[in-house]
Automatic annotation (TrEMBL):
Domain of life from the UniProt record: Bacteria
Family, as annotated: Belongs to the UPF0382 family.
Organism: Psychrobacter nivimaris
Keywords attached to this entry: Membrane, Transmembrane, Transmembrane helix
Segments traversing the membrane: 41-61, 68-87, 93-114
Membrane topology note: Multi-pass membrane protein
Coiled-coil region(s): none
Primary site of residence: membrane
GO cellular component: plasma membrane
Compartment(s) where it occurs, according to its Swiss-Prot or TrEMBL record: Membrane
Listed name of the protein: Putative regulator
Taxonomic lineage from the root: Bacteria, Pseudomonadati, Pseudomonadota, Gammaproteobacteria, Moraxellales
């Protein structure tokens, strides 16, 4: 089984490092728009990494399957990764794949909701 708690912790460490790089290393080197992309990517990475930590705990306790974690992690990589790439000079068409990551993150949270409702129904 994949250690989703460890993966979540790595995501959080990456979020802190990339947030610091964006705040101290990019200013003056990229446009305001690109800096906004970087901040958005970092915010979503950090928030979803925290969520993934919770999901990892739920998986470990055998309340849910790994599906939520996979949807969140792939969504994080696509969403934040495409924004980071555009900030660093990738073509703007990369922005066309950003929503795919967002949809995967939404799907992950909805899958968690469905799993939680199923769990509640099976306990009663």
């Amino acid at each position: 089984m994949i250690n989703w708690i460890g993966i979540a912790a790595i995501n959080m460490a990456i979020a802190v490092a990339l947030g610091a790089f964006g705040a101290h290393g990019l200013e003056g080197h990229v446009s305001i728009q690109q800096l906004e992309w970087w901040h958005t990517a970092t915010l979503y990475l950090f928030v979803h990494a925290l969520g993934l930590l919770l999901v990892g705990l739920l998986i470990r306790l055998k309340y849910i399957t790994q599906t939520t974690a996979w949807l969140l992690q792939i969504g994080i990589v696509i969403f934040a990764g495409s924004l980071y790439a555009m900030t660093l000079g990738a073509p703007r068409w990369f922005g066309a794949i950003t929503p795919i990551g967002g949809v995967l993150m939404i799907a992950g949270w909805l899958w968690l909701a469905v799993s939680a409702f199923r769990l509640k129904d099976s306990v009663n």
